[in-house]
Amino acid sequence: GALARRGIEAHGRSGMNVWVPVPDETGAVARLLHAGWAVAPGARFRSDAPPGIRITVSTLTADEAEPVAQAVATALEPPAGAARTYV
């Protein structure tokens, strides 16, 4: 799908929602909201899983799939000026 083409891991079986693991739920939700997309922070939907966001995809149109996937990809990029770790 549109997320996979951007190298974004996403899980979902029902066709209603997808789960996207993220390093920072609050930051990802805020950046997506700023871009015009409402998603849910994953904290209330998980128990032992790592951080993530829940995206309701059942209401997306085919024309919205690529723009929302690009917004997610952009939201997951490190903020400008963020420290990077090199190994």
Summarize the structure in words.
Helix 1 (25-34) packs across helix 2 (62-76). The protein is globular. Strands 1-3-2 form a three-stranded antiparallel beta sheet, with helices on one face. The protein has helices spanning 25-34, 62-76; strands at residues 17-21, 40-41, 52-56. The chain has 87 residues and is of the alpha+beta class. The chain has one domain (4-76): Aspartate Aminotransferase, domain 1. The model has no long low-confidence stretch (mean pLDDT 90). The protein contains two helices and three strands. The longest helix has 15 residues, at 62-76.
Number of helices: 2
CATH architecture: Alpha-Beta Complex
Average pLDDT works out at: 90
Structural class: alpha+beta
Helix content: 25-40%
N to C succession of SSEs: EHEEH
CATH top-level class: Alpha Beta
CATH topology: Aspartate Aminotransferase, domain 1
Strand order within the widest beta sheet: 1-3-2
Number of domains: 1
Report strand %: 5-15%
Shape: globular
CATH H-tier superfamily:
Aspartate Aminotransferase, domain 1
Q: Give a quick account of the main beta sheet: strands, pairing sense, barrel closure.
A: 3 strands, antiparallel
Radius of gyration: 13 Å
Q: Separation of termini? A: 31 Å
Which blocks of ≥5 consecutive residues have pLDDT under 50? none
Q: Write down how many β-strands occur, each being a DSSP E stretch of 2 or more residues.
A: 3
